[in-house]
Design brief:
Length: about 110
């Protein structure tokens, strides 16, 4: 997964990527934290597919950061988080983020 970090950091300032599909890449921990930075700073990514990772695993502080970033993101209209080992704590954090996010149309 370490090869993802430069790639994900590049997405922070990228303004041309319209769809990002990162399903099945065992993203968790630091990768999830980096995705949170992408969601906070990238203003042009409308579709993000993250299914079959471990983004919500282990009551991760990184998942909390991801949810916080998602809650204020204004560009995402489609997000796929299927099968990410999210437990009830992560589900609650995600529910709060969904209430705050005003642009998402497809989950």
């Amino acid at each position: 997964m370490f090869f993802f970090f430069p790639f994900l950091h590049g997405l922070v300032t990228n303004t041309t990527c319209r769809r990002l599909e990162l399903q099945g890449n065992s993203i968790h921990g630091a990768g999830t934290a980096t995705l949170a930075k992408v969601l906070r700073r990238n203003k042009s990514l409308p579709n993000l597919r993250l299914e079959w990772n471990q983004i919500g695993a282990m009551d991760s502080p990184a998942f909390s950061s991801f949810c916080d970033a998602f809650s204020v993101n204004k560009s995402l209209i489609g997000l796929n988080l299927r099968n990410n080992d999210t437990n009830h704590v992560g589900g609650s954090e995600l529910a709060i983020a969904l209430k705050r996010n005003v642009t998402l149309r497809v989950l």
